[in-house]
Amino acid sequence: MDLKDLYRDVIVDHNRKPRNFRPMPDADRQAEGFNPLCGDRLTLFVKLDGDRIGDVSFQGSGCAISVASASLLTESVKGRTVAEAEQLFTRMHELLTLDDAVADPVALGKLAALSGVREFPARVKCASLCWHTLDAALHREAEPVSTE
Amino acid sequence: MSVVRAPAVVAVDLDRPIDVEAVRRDFPILAREVNGKPLCYLDNAASSQRPRAVIDAISRYYETSHANVHRGVHRLSQEATDLFEGARETLRRFINARSTREIIFVRGTTEAINLVAQSHARHRLQPDDEIVISWLEHHANIVPWQMVCEQTGARLRVIPITVSGEVDFEAFLGLLNERTRLLALAHVSNALGTVVPVDDFIREAKRRGIPVLLDGAQAVPHMAVDVQALGCDFYCFSGHKMCGPTGIGVLYGREALLEAMPPWQGGGDMILAVSFERTLYNGLPYKFEAGTPHIAGAIGLARAVEYLQSLGLERIATAEHELLRYATACLAEVPGLEIVGTAPEKAAVVSFTVAGVHPHDLGTILDSEGVAIRTGHHCAMPVMEFFGVPATARASFAFYNTRAEIDRLVSALHVAQEMLA
Fold first, then answer.
1. Does B100 map to a domain?
2. Which positions in chain A have a beta carbon within 8 angstroms of at least one beta carbon in chain B?
3. Do both B321 and B350 map to the same domain?
4. Which of A8, A63, A65 to mutate to test the interface with B (most CBs of B within 10 A)?
5. CA angle at residue B68 from B65 to B70, to 5 degrees?
6. Residue B124's CB: how many other CB atoms inside 10 A?
7. Contact status of B14 with chain A (Cβ, < 8 Å)
8. pTM of the complete model
9. What is the domain-level CATH number for residue A136?
10. How confident is the model at residue A1 (pLDDT cuts 50, 70, 90)?
């Protein structure tokens, strides 16, 4: 269990300078995610362009893993179709929870940097919160998403 | 007669400070490593560790004397009953209750508070009656009262706290009125370590005839508690925060109040006679102990009490105060670190934030250095809200901690800052 495997340079960078960290007044989808154990809280905004995610942004506060994961999410799903984003969610879920999951660098791109989280079970929810929140935003679930 | 007795307490010179190295050898878990480093356990406010004496008392009970209590005429049942009731007497003396009838074994502080809420408060509260708690409370001393308010139409009134994390006494006086039916107050704050000057609060409540419940979960392990001197009506605490087992705790209640309360749960042990027409309830304390109790837990808890008394509660308080003083001074030197909760009277708890590093990242990075602290809202979300933080890191010390461990905490904090800030 090496800390450097968790806090990789990409993650540290995205925590210090989160991308797409801004409100989106004209968003047509929005969802809130909450991790009651940690107090991590984020709001995800989505602007759809047909069945594509035209723009995506987030706001909130949380640990380095949750902030970096949300930041990486916004970069990875922007421009993709809703179906592609959902596929990515499934892959991320596998990456974070399955012991034998292999990070496919082609499919995952920078998201593969989160593969170290699996070794820290207490932190998996930090990384997956934004993905559950995106899922809720895409399905218009009104209640805040909780990791519990 | 083969009833197992606790080994005689070795005489110690109570004027001398605790020999921390000798004490550490009493705790087997302190010898283990975490991530290749010696365990540095600074999460005692969440749960303390167990000395060998407690672990052995539990094992010995199961190996030699276990049977159900209060039921059999056979030898083992008698031995188990003697040990269980002996434990009750040890706990009675520990908090100086008048009678063992006032010592109810429960699962822990949470269950004790729920019992009082449902069996005492619920039957007395009318719509618009008021229960007073403070902003410092653990969720366990908030939610049971919210539930009973929902059931009865009573209202919850909350005493504000100050920026140093003290319960605002003047505001408390302003909240008391003819509708106040109960004051439920932490003796020591779990999130900040504030020692609440409960004497003042109890005096004012008593002058107005208002019953007082104290949540003593964080107080009992660290100071001598005398319920008669305090004059409170209910006192709740847990075994696992005072070197005893999990799943066992005590509700102390003044006998007259307990007598007036209906049973909480129904079942075995709390009855004298049952027919389908009518059930005759057992007397105190059994009226509130339905079902087979946590016998081993009570025995282990009594052994923990004896262990703490053998060290001396005063010496424990002195040692922990010294650790608090040292830790507060060392942490104040860490750039970007802010201590949350600076009351003049504190238990050995330091809650803090570090600029640029979220508490959860701190928790993980410190763990990789073998240092265990608590991170999060500490089951006191209103306290976090008051200070405008989602979470804090909290180091909490016990008498078996050392200055060297505090040094390790500080250097691990530097590692975290280099990595993330």
1. yes
2. 1, 3, 6-7, 12, 15, 37-41, 61-65, 67, 120, 122-123, 126
3. yes
4. A63
5. 110
6. 15
7. no
8. 0.92
9. 3.90.1010.10
10. low
How many residues are there in chain B? 421
- B34 inside domain: yes
Q: In B261-355, where does DSSP find H-type helix?
A: 295-311, 313-332
Would you please indicate which residues of B are annotated as catalytic (active-site) residues? 379
Strands B37-38 and B33-34: antiparallel
What's the CATH number where B408 sits? 3.90.1150.10
Say what the ipTM of the complex is. 0.89
Q: Do B364 and A61 touch (CB under 8 A)?
A: no
Let me know the angle formed at the C-alpha of B261 by B259 and B263, rounded to the nearest 5 degrees: 105
Find, among B186, B190, B223, B234, the residue nearest to B317 by Cα. B223
Q: Which residues pair with B141 in a beta bridge?
A: none
Domain count within chain B: 2
DSSP structure class, residue B93: H
Instruction: pLDDT band for A141, please (50, 70, 90 cuts).
Output: low
Reduced to 3 states (helix: H, G, I; strand: E, B; else coil), residue B150 is helix
What does the pLDDT read at residue A131? 96
Cβ of A38 within 8 Å of Cβ of B361? The answer is: no
Closest CA to A120 of A97, A101, A92: A97
**CA pair distance A90, A110, nearest whole angstrom:** 16
- Nearest 10 degrees: CA dihedral of B162, B163, B165, B169? -10
Task: Give one word for B227, left, alpha or beta, with left for phi > 0 and alpha for psi -120 to 50.
Answer: alpha
B234-to-B93, B132, B145, B216, B217 alpha-carbon distances in Å: 16, 15, 15, 10, 13
Q: Please provide the size of chain A in residues.
A: 148
